[in-house]
Amino acid sequence: MYAITVTEPGGPEALTWSEVPDPALSEGEVLVDVAATAVNRADVAQREGRYPPPAGASQYPGLECSGTVAALGPGTEDSGWSVGDRVCALLAGGGYAEKVAVPVGQLLPVPSGIGLEEAASLPEVACTVWSNLVMVGHLRAGETVLIHGGGSGIGTFAIQFARAMGARVAVTAGSEEKLAACRELGAQITVNYRSEDFTERMREEGGADLVLDIMGGAYLDKNLRALRTGGRVTVIALMGGRSAELDLGRMLAKRLSVHATALRSRPVDEKATIVAGVLEHVWPLIEDRKIRPVVDRSLPMHEAPDAHRAMEASEHTGKILLTR
Ligand SMILES: NC(=O)c1ccc[n+]([C@@H]2O[C@H](COP(=O)([O-])OP(=O)(O)OC[C@H]3O[C@@H](n4cnc5c(N)ncnc54)[C@H](OP(=O)(O)O)[C@@H]3O)[C@@H](O)[C@H]2O)c1
User: Where is the chain membrane-spanning (predicted)?
Assistant: First the structure.
């Protein structure tokens, strides 16, 4: 088969469409014939050599895909999946390829009403948003959630999911175009982080109960100040650095908590639990059109270098797809 490989860690030109061996199926895995994958920020870090795949994962980039089941591996014969099923999947790697081996618990059916290719935009955002807003962040109807980077792949999904849950949604983004897109998706409070202090704005709005954070160290204290009593922060990325001073006094006085999670490195059984929660609670919202995939653009897989350039320039709103 062909896959996008990283010849030497570096810039987008390091991504090359190369002939490689087909994946071998281990116990509990299913072979998927890939229709599309999607670009994630983590793929950029992997390409640069800053985010190596976890032990045992495919060396090729790609944290999600859609496609059709091509073969059932050992121990998956009674899983309920059949050759030819249209699926999408959460991956630890290997989506930028013609075929990928997937632990069976990480497969999801393509939601009704969604195209096979656009389904590749869903697994990573759905699993990240569900696990962080609900399983970790305990978001409830009527609460206010602040989502940083509202125009991102994660942000565009999180806005719609939180609104569907009955939460009030605030976002930050760096351009008026992205803020307008966030409003169109349901965000009620929009803050341009380049011209407005989100902490002040959230205080004027009564404070946030939950912050979904991607900036890490740079926003830690600002996030704590934006929270109301009992508030929570879930950190999912460290785009503004990995460390900062933590004011425990502020946490103690307002009974705050800070969590940080990564999806990719979690054990297969934990991922299966998250995927099962997504299937039960998030998929119906997509099928009822309460959440729609937000796809900025779609490129052929061999043009992965251009897709990475677009992501690094932050030109996109929503997801960037790579198709076969
Ligand atoms: N922990 C996990 O399990 C997990 C899983 C999936 C994704 N993630 C992380 O979540 C983040 C979003 O992922 P993605 O794939 O959706 O990436 P993405 O689409 O490239 O989003 C990154 C976003 O960051 C925004 N941004 C940059 N500086 C900002 C600032 N100072 N304040 C607020 N927003 C800012 C950019 O928007 P502007 O153009 O508006 O600046 C852009 O929309 C990435 O860092 C990714 O690594 C983590």
Answer: none
